[in-house]
Design brief:
- 76% of the residues lie in helices and 0% in strands.
């Protein structure tokens, strides 16, 4: 950690705490929903509410990340969701919590998450040297997985059964602490202006001197936000590698959202196929996280051995096929090893695709293009979750799980066909970048 600098240590620590809060909410809220209703449609609304803000606000949040100090955006977003969840905790203590208030809480916390996450991915390249991006992303991904699944998930399973109000109270405290930790990062983290100034912490020049507040920022700030958003969309769609990755990620996330929106009904309860208790469902997520820690740390080495694109496409293919295992053999004895493999392969792929985006997108456009990418890549998730619930209501849970797997396999096939010339090397697209004069 020391080699990546003091500012990265604060960023990593904040990431670890905020993702621990995410993990408690990610597992705790659907389990609370299952305790209130067994309707697949209503349960799937929790996943839809979690991801709906990405569809509605990703582009605007990215534009904000390219106009404001990215660290300050993260601080404010964390403090806002801490306040929201503290209020929900009070409602739960008073016995006033119901499914609709649960959905509102998840939705409002998700709004803050969009701003926090987009700024976090954009601030990382300003914190470490570019040659250390994959290593730094591996460390961040490990912290995310440990917090989200290794620790947060089992804690959530226990809290739902014992202290439901703490499912919201603990994340409120964690988000507040995460926001305050970011204040320890040195330097200004405003994006560079047209003049080419840089705004970096310890990893770059101008640490602590407000280097990002150059003359170019004034011109950028005066532009209408819709012009910034249009520029990002043009850039993404004209960049063959980024466009192909975004479309594939969109298909995978849409399908996985449908799958996991109803998977809790397949796995948890006396009438489920697998028959887990709520605490067991949390342990499944812990198994996922254990694999994800290894996957995120091994991603750089795997890419060096097999090539970046071959490794990424392989990860996405295998993780898609593994979705069939709990359907074909619905048993805890197969579910837990499968969850470990999901973690190893999924985390490795995530590290590679995030590092590729950070390397390919110019610093001044990073927030906006990242937001456009994530709109395409994640915007379908609420639709997938809602569709999964509706289809399960009429065709059964198995139809959703198998159909989602098929969509994932189609997405991986389209990616391999679109980027067949990238099969053995690092993901790059210099020719596409040189054609971007219209969007610079």
């Amino acid at each position: 950690m020391a080699r990546l600098g003091r500012s990265f240590a604060y960023l990593w620590s904040s990431t670890a705490l905020s993702n621990l809060a995410d993990g408690v909410l990610k597992i705790g809220t659907p389990l609370l929903a299952v305790s209130m209703t067994r309707s697949p449609t209503l349960v799937s609304l929790v996943a839809a509410a979690t991801t709906l803000p990405w569809l509605l606000l990703a582009l605007h949040a990215g534009a904000v990340a390219d106009r404001a100090d990215r660290r300050r955006v993260m601080v404010r977003a964390n403090l806002v969701r801490a306040v929201i969840l503290a209020g929900v905790t009070l409602l739960a203590v008073l016995g006033l919590l119901n499914l609709w208030l649960l959905l509102a809480a998840v939705l409002l916390a998700g709004v803050s998450e969009v701003f926090a996450d987009l700024s976090a991915q954009s601030v990382l390249p300003m914190t470490v040297p570019h040659e250390a991006l994959t290593k730094a992303n591996g460390r961040v991904s490990s912290a995310q997985m440990i917090g989200n699944d290794f620790v947060g998930a089992p804690v959530a399973g226990l809290l739902v059964a014992t202290l439901p109000a703490v499912v919201f109270g603990a994340p409120a405290l964690l988000y507040a602490t995460a926001g305050l930790l970011l204040l320890g990062m040195r330097g200004a983290y405003r994006p560079p202006g047209e003049t080419g100034t840089t705004a970096r912490g310890e990893a770059g020049t101008g640490a602590g001197d407000g280097a990002g507040d150059g003359a170019g920022d004034g011109a950028e700030a005066r532009r209408p936000m819709r012009a910034d958003i249009a520029e990002a969309l043009r850039y993404l769609w004209s960049h063959r590698v980024l466009r192909s990755l975004a479309v594939t990620a969109g298909l995978l996330n849409l399908a996985n959202s449908a799958y996991f929106a109803v998977f809790v009904l397949w796995a948890v309860g006396d009438g489920s196929e697998i028959g887990l208790e709520p605490a067991g469902y949390g342990l499944m997520a812990t198994a996922f996280a254990a694999g994800a820690v290894f996957g995120s740390l091994l991603a750089d080495r795997a890419a060096g051995l097999f090539g970046e694109f071959r490794t990424l496409a392989g990860c996405w293919l295998v993780s898609s096929l593994l979705l069939l295992v709990p359907v074909i053999v619905p048993s805890p004895w197969t579910l837990f090893p499968t969850a470990v493999l999901w973690g190893v392969i999924g985390a490795g792929g995530n590290v590679l695709v995030i590092s590729a985006r950070q390397r390919l997108i110019p610093a001044k456009l990073l927030g906006r293009v990242n937001s456009a990418y994530r709109l395409v890549g994640m915007g379908g998730m609420p639709l997938g979750a809602a569709a999964g619930g509706v289809v399960a209501e009429f065709a059964g849970l198995g139809a959703v799980l198998v159909g989602a797997t098929g969509v994932c396999l189609v997405g991986v096939g389209l990616l391999r066909r679109a980027l067949s010339d990238q099969i053995s090397g690092p993901l790059t697209s210099e020719a596409a970048l040189s054609d971007m004069s219209g969007s610079r």
